[in-house]
Design brief:
The chain has helices at about 5-30, 30-60, 120-125, 145-150, 160-165, 175-180, 225-230, and strands spanning about 65, 70-80, 85-90, 100-105, 110-120, 130-140, 155, 190-200, 205-210, 215-220. It has about 240 residues and is α+β, with helices and mostly antiparallel strands. It folds into two domains: about 5-60; about 65-230, no CATH class. Strands 1, 5, 6, 7 and 8 form a five-stranded antiparallel beta sheet that branches. A hairpin with a 2-residue loop joins strand 9 (about 205-210) and strand 10. The longest helix has 28 residues, at about 30-60. It is elongated and about 80 Å long. The termini are far apart. Keywords: Membrane, Transmembrane, Transmembrane helix. This is Cation/multidrug efflux pump.
């Protein structure tokens, strides 16, 4: 966790609180100009500090990416034709208990996982911001276009699960949207992009998903998954 996300907003909030109190005292003491100016400046500083703190809390839901690393393991169990249950687990980080995984029923021929990736500019790296990622969505994929257009779909919000896992914020300040909106003013992000990987579904298959500097990579980790990856890319009947 980056320390200055909390120290700087706390310092600004403290200054704003002191100025706000002085402004209110000035108002009660018959000094309207000084009181209004102090109240506006102090209240504005408190608001800005709160917004920065919430933005920092949201940013902490993105995992730091400094090298290639596994981000998810998927174990599949077939429930029916073109219908599977996926047990998705994410590696534990320091201070968290082991995750038993979450179950997702998925329709289709392939599973697909997506992530949001934030890559910072060198000057932001110096301030402690490494490239970061957050898993965004898990869904099913049909190989036949007609089924993709009209078949039963499955999609799950992994970002919301990540927020719950890391501690949801009481006020929604989405780092992804905020960085895009204010990029003309504070151009710290080198690029913001979405990355995805997909693989065939098969009963008993296990896959690992890795994040690299170029995006997501999916790898089979047992024979069932390897056989499905080698020969399972034909359109299902």
């Amino acid at each position: 966790m980056i320390w200055w996300w909390w120290v700087l907003p706390a310092a600004v909030a403290l200054i704003g609180f002191v100025v706000l109190i002085r402004g209110l005292r000035a108002l009660s003491g018959g000094k309207p100009f000084r009181g209004v100016a102090g109240a506006l400046f102090g209240g504005g500083a408190l608001w800005a500090a709160s917004l920065a703190a919430l933005f920092g809390m949201n940013l902490q839901t993105y995992e730091r990416l400094t090298y290639e690393r596994p981000v998810a393991t998927l174990a599949l169990r077939q429930l029916g034709p073109q219908y599977y249950e996926i047990n998705l687990t994410q590696p534990t980080v320091q201070g968290q208990t082991a995750d038993a995984g979450a179950l997702y029923p998925v329709h289709g021929d392939d599973w697909r996982i997506e992530a949001q990736v934030l890559k910072w500019k060198p000057w932001a790296n110096v301030m402690g911001l490494d490239s970061q990622y957050r898993l965004d969505r898990l869904s099913g994929r049909y190989r036949a276009i007609e089924q993709e257009l009209h078949g039963e779909r499955s999609a799950y919000d992994l970002a919301a699960a990540s927020n719950a896992r890391n501690g949801a914020v009481p006020f929604k300040v989405e780092a992804w949207d905020a960085i895009r909106r204010y990029r003309p003013y504070v151009d710290a992000a080198d690029t913001l992009y979405g990355s995805a990987a997909y693989m065939p579904m098969a009963d008993g298959a296990r896959y690992e998903v890795w994040i690299t500097q170029s995006g997501l990579v999916a790898r089979p980790v047992n024979d069932v998954a390897r056989n499905a990856s080698a020969g399972g890319w034909t359109v299902a009947n």
